[in-house]
Design brief:
Order of helices and strands: EEEEHEHEHHHHHEHEHH
Shape: globular
Largest sheet: 8 strands, mixed
Strand order of the largest sheet: 1-2-4-3-5-6-7-8
Helix content: 25-40%
Number of strands: 8
Number of domains: 1
Structural class: alpha/beta
Distance between the termini: 32 Å
Strand content: 15-25%
CATH architecture: 3-Layer(aba) Sandwich
Radius of gyration: 18 Å
Amino acid sequence: MPTFTAADGTRLAYHLRGTGDPLAVLPGGPMRASAYLADLGGLTADRRLALLDLRGTGDSAVPADPATYRCDRMVDDVEVWRTHMGLEHMDLLAHSAGAALALLYAARHPHRIRRLVLVTPNPSPLGMRATPEDRLAAARLRADEPWFARAHPVFRSWLTDGADFDEVFLPFFYGRWDDTARAHADAEPGQTNDEAGERYFAEGAFTPDATRTALAALTAPVLVHAGEVDGGPRPDLARRAARVFPAAEVAVQPGAGHFPWLDDPRWFRERVAAFLRAPTDAVPPPAG
């Protein structure tokens, strides 16, 4: 397990899986250890995944200053990581809340991005975010599921009344509520740093107007990958986020929820791998 040292002295770890050209990967959660990403539906057959454990998660150390868990404060961690891996430009994939960090990184270091993949992204840095209405509309697509009648009222109460999180509505986050999904969901509590997750989106993390302006100049191609039945983001929100970029495409995976590589690994792998293999005429501007 390779490690490197962040600018503030925190030791950070990442995990290498697969063969081929490197693909840097940022996990979501927020602040969930990268283990939940596994091999991203077999993407390791095409690329060598470098999966970062964000500070205070997985095998990375807890920082001395918990304020550094705020999303924008970790952009420097990603840049030090890139330098450590010896990559002049990198292909970067980020999932869910990790996409917020990837967006801030791309805005600050556009010349370091070769291709950017945002999987079921949280677009908060763009001034966009899934609403309770979005999530409930997506939930209603699952009305024929055997667990829906029990889960839907609890889910609605959590979204609209501030009720406590309840495991009964976890199926809404997966396109298929099978043994694989259950095992994936069961692992989450031991993989997530709750304190860090509460600080990740803290006030001051985002300046949407400045970020949108910076990303409008990003020359790298971008793939925004959404799940058909995911509520955060729904496909329409993913399309709106994609419009920020000059060279973006949107993929909507049929029947997929928030973890599309679990719902249909082959569909996910082939779509993402095709994007990463496609030639690009985009030339990153010089550093500096």
